[in-house]
Amino acid sequence: MLDLFARVFGRDDASKEVAKERLRLVLVHDRASLSPQAMEDLKNDLLTVISKYMDIDDQGFKVDFSRHDDAMALVANIPIRRVKRNTL
Predict the structure, then answer these.
(1) pTM check: above 0.90
(2) Based on the structure, what is the number of domains in the chain?
(3) Is 75 exposed, middle or buried (0-12, 13-18, 19+ CB in 10 A)?
(4) Residue 88 lies inside a defined structural domain of this protein
């Protein structure tokens, strides 16, 4: 039934993924009390620093917050292509 609606209204997987990403950003904002811009700035800063030491796949880079009881943790998924040997 949902497939029928998807075909009739022209929704594709790309728009579904965009909607999921927007919802994820709203949830992250609520959990961490960070604005979406602050979250994006944090992600960019992490990419900049980590890129000094490693070649990373920034397309697969994800940053999120996880809550466990009263504690909150920053969780980052960073696909590493290779470690840079001469960083200093």
Answers:
(1) no
(2) 1
(3) exposed
(4) no
